[in-house]
Write a structure and sequence with these properties.
This protein is an all-alpha fold and 602 residues long. The protein has helices at residues 20-35, 40-75, 81-141, 151-164, 181-185, 189-217, 225-230, 234-261, 269-298, 303-333, 346-354, 372-401, 411-420, 422-447, 465-472, 474-491, 497-520, 526-541, 549-579, 587-591. The active site is at 512.
Length: 602
């Protein structure tokens, strides 16, 4: 603060009015620090600016107080000298107190400014990352078109480019270093409180289960029989997975090497391509599809063990297809016959099989270090979600569906069953999303130093089912977009976009129903019908033009009802299969739902 001599008490030392130039200067310096976080000069100058402004204000107030005190002492001069001395001492003490107060206020202001700087940087970083992510997603989803001289010439060039070769890998998905959305949101206390609420609900489930078991059994029951049954015969699961993984690691890579090395020297390129393509397709059908399905059915694996085998089967099939598809385009786009064929390294393919993505690249953005505490936390959260699902089934599902097959069927029973199943269905949906898409994938990404953590987007803010399908599971959506939707458009030169979208829905619905049919041990196409009928209709009706909170409410209501229907109908069919087994079922008995006729046998 500038120290200038004060020659008279008549000098006006009151603080000047807030100058717009001073405020604009501070604002510009703050904005400069946000835009350039490495320039610490901006923040120091801005803090000094604000501090000097407050010091001027506080000093003016102090000096005005002293001047008014001196004036009152002059007016009260007839009073005794004792009173005068007392006023003088109080004035001096007040002066000391005011100086200390100004210093403390300056220190507090600096602390508040530093805290405000930190908060502004965090908020700007989050908003900027979100903006860049959306910009990259929108830009990569656009088809790259050459600059046109006229509309007719542009259409001909685009059609010719699509006929000649598929899009090279570099025009596909772009991987960048970014964190998962929930990791960002959990830094906000309000969002973290919602996470704490779910933990509190888990504690209540545990306490209620223990109390009910103690009342019924007279002791605490801690055997977790449902979990033990669901994950039974685990050694068979491990051995099956090892066989699938090793075959996926060796056979597709070996077939691609044999095809690529002799492709340019071969005189029958088409015949060679068909031969090796048929071998790869045979491996996909026999090695990765038929063998695991036979193992699951032959050894009668329980549901959770079946889910592990079948989901790993689907994942490895999708990864093998991505590896062949991306490298096939690379070899075909190489027009120089004498040049060396770019063969991916074996280590790259091995890394890809473990990486939390279904799109093959030779390299991905990597983090410099591994946070093992973060990995342990994510695996602990996965384990917690398993116990959460256990208590949901024990407290909310088993008591509801255990004896439902013995009750007479009516519309009232069905409607009550669906609405009573909404709560466990939604909780299971949240747990599946959090345990797999957030915790499991982030744990493996951290161990592999995989930097692109956008496994999902803000699907909970969707106002349309089209946006929900794109943001719920980004990992699977990217594979369907590039290898089902884009390749379909490549085959038909962008003429049948509706048919391409229908093919994507059909593939997704068939795979989902296949997984449930194998894992549950019966065919009941509830999910297929909901996916193909209501999901397809909602995709066109509730499209991206629907904005506003009302459509988000519509989306959540439909999602809740769908989860209630899935839990209710599949649970009824599961218990009907247990209560009404068939000795020699025909093909019609295997296709027809048992829950429709089980009450006739009881």
């Amino acid at each position: 603060m500038d120290r200038r001599p004060c020659r008279s008490t008549r000098i006006d030392v009151s603080p000047p009015p807030p100058s717009p130039f001073l405020s604009a200067s501070c604002g510009a310096r703050s904005l400069g620090h946000v835009l350039f976080p490495n320039a610490d000069t901006w923040s120091s100058v801005c803090i000094e600016c604000w501090s000097r402004k407050l010091m001027a204000s506080e000093t003016g107030v102090t000096l005005r107080g002293r001047r008014s005190s001196a004036k009152s002492m002059n007016e009260d001069s007839p009073r005794s000298s004792e009173g005068t001395d007392d006023v003088y001492v109080r004035s001096v003490s007040n002066g000391k107190i005011d100086a200390e107060y100004v210093i403390n206020r300056k220190l507090q202001l600096k602390q508040k400014a530093e805290q405000m700087k930190t908060d502004l940087l965090k908020q700007f970083d989050f908003q900027f990352n979100h903006f860049v992510d959306n910009l990259i997603d929108e830009s990569t989803s656009l088809d790259s078109v050459s600059p046109f001289l006229s509309s007719s010439v542009n259409k001909e060039l685009t059609a010719l480019a699509h006929r000649q070769a598929r899009a090279p890998p570099e025009k596909g998905k772009h991987f960048i270093s970014r964190r998962s959305l929930l990791d960002e949101l959990f830094q906000v206390n309000h969002i973290r409180t919602i996470y704490h609420m779910f933990i509190a609900l888990l504690i209540l489930f545990i306490v209620s289960t223990l109390v009910m078991d103690f009342i019924d059994e007279g002791r605490l029951v801690l055997d977790f029989d449902l979990l033990v049954y669901a994950f039974g015969k685990f050694p068979i699961v491990i051995s099956t997975w090892l066989c699938m993984f090793l075959s996926t690691l060796l056979i597709p890579y070996g077939l691609f090497l044999q095809w690529a090395f002799g492709y340019y020297a071969s005189k029958h390129k088409v015949l060679r391509m068909v031969f090796f393509g048929a071998l790869f397709l045979l491996f996909q059908i026999v090695g990765l599809w038929a063998a695991p399905v036979y193992t699951v059915i032959h050894f009668r694996l329980p549901p959770a063990s079946r889910f592990i085998v079948i989901l790993e089967q689907v994942r490895l099939m999708m990864k093998a297809h991505s590896f062949i598809r991306e490298n096939f385009s690379r070899v075909m786009s190489n027009k120089e016959k004498n040049s060396d064929v770019q063969i991916p390294q074996f280590s790259h393919y091995l890394y890809f099989l473990f990486a939390p993505t279904l799109i093959y690249r030779d390299s991905y953005p990597r983090n410099p270090t591994i946070r093992w505490s973060y990995v342990a936390t994510k695996f602990a959260q996965v384990l917690g979600c398993l116990f959460y699902a256990y208590y949901i089934f024990v407290r909310l599902c088993i008591p509801l569906f255990r004896n439902i097959s013995k009750e007479p069927f009516s519309l009232k029973v069905l409607v009550l069953c669906i609405f009573n199943s909404i709560l466990p269905g939604v909780l299971v949906l949240f747990l599946a999303f959090f345990a797999f898409l957030h915790c499991w994938l982030n744990a493996f990404a951290e161990m592999l130093q995989f930097a692109d953590r956008m496994f999902y987007k803000d699907w909970w803010n969707s106002t349309s089912f089209a946006n929900y399908y794109r943001t719920w599971n980004v990992v699977v959506h990217d594979w369907l977009y590039y290898y089902a939707y884009k390749d379909f458009l490549w085959l038909f030169t962008h003429r049948f976009r509706a048919a391409a979208m229908l093919s994507v829905f059909t593939v997704s619905a068939v795979v989902h129903e296949y997984v449930l049919a194998i894992c549950f041990g019966f065919f009941y196409p509830v999910l297929f019908c909901l996916f193909m009928c209501f999901g397809m209709a909602f995709n066109f009706v509730l499209h991206d033009r629907r904005k506003g909170p009302v459509w988000n409410v519509v989306m959540w209501t439909s999602l809740f009802l769908g989860q209630g229907m899935l839990v209710c109908l599949y649970s009824q069919e599961w218990y009907a299969q247990q209560h009404c087994p068939l000795t020699n079922p025909s093909f019609l008995d295997l296709v027809k739902p048992r829950s429709w006729t089980c009450r006739l046998h009881t």
